[in-house]
Amino acid sequence: MISYVTLGTNDLDRAAKFYDHVLAVVGAKRGLASDRFISWAGSSGAPMLMAMKPHDGNAATVGNGVMVALAAESPEQVKAIYDAAIAAGGTDEGEPGERGPGIYAGYFRDMDGNKLNAIHFGSHFGS
User: Fold this and answer.
1) What is the pTM of this model?
2) CA–CA distance, 39 with 49 (Å, rounded to integer)
3) d(CA 23, CA 47)
4) 7, 12, 65, 118: least surrounded by Cβ within 10 Å?
5) pLDDT tens track for 74-116
6) pLDDT tens-place string over residues 24-38
7) The CATH number, out of the four listed (3.10.180.10, 3.10.25.10, 3.65.10.10, 3.40.50.300), of the domain defined by the range 4-54+66-125
8) How many C-alpha atoms does 13 have within 13 Å on its Cβ side?
């Protein structure tokens, strides 16, 4: 259903280093790229995450209430993604932990202030 999600950045090189580090935990690799954007995907045809300079030339800003959730295969991978984000310069928005029956998540922001989380839905959700 989702082809890609774009997160604005004011520093594409810095964003590239951050997302290379974080998305490697889930096996994502760089895909399409230009001087304005870089994309990452886990496999051919899978949804992509893109870091992009805004098309209108204005500064990238954070959308209030906007968040991208990265799918994790286990609670351990949630922690690994969160730890990678913090190690790469991200900031804590909620340490990994149980968020409800069968839901395990950790929240962080990239250096541009975009909010993300790593999440694992357990057996309650068919995974």
Assistant:
1) 0.90
2) 6
3) 13
4) 65
5) 999 999 999 999 999 999 999 999 999 999 999 999 999 999 9
6) 999 999 999 999 999
7) 3.10.180.10
8) 0
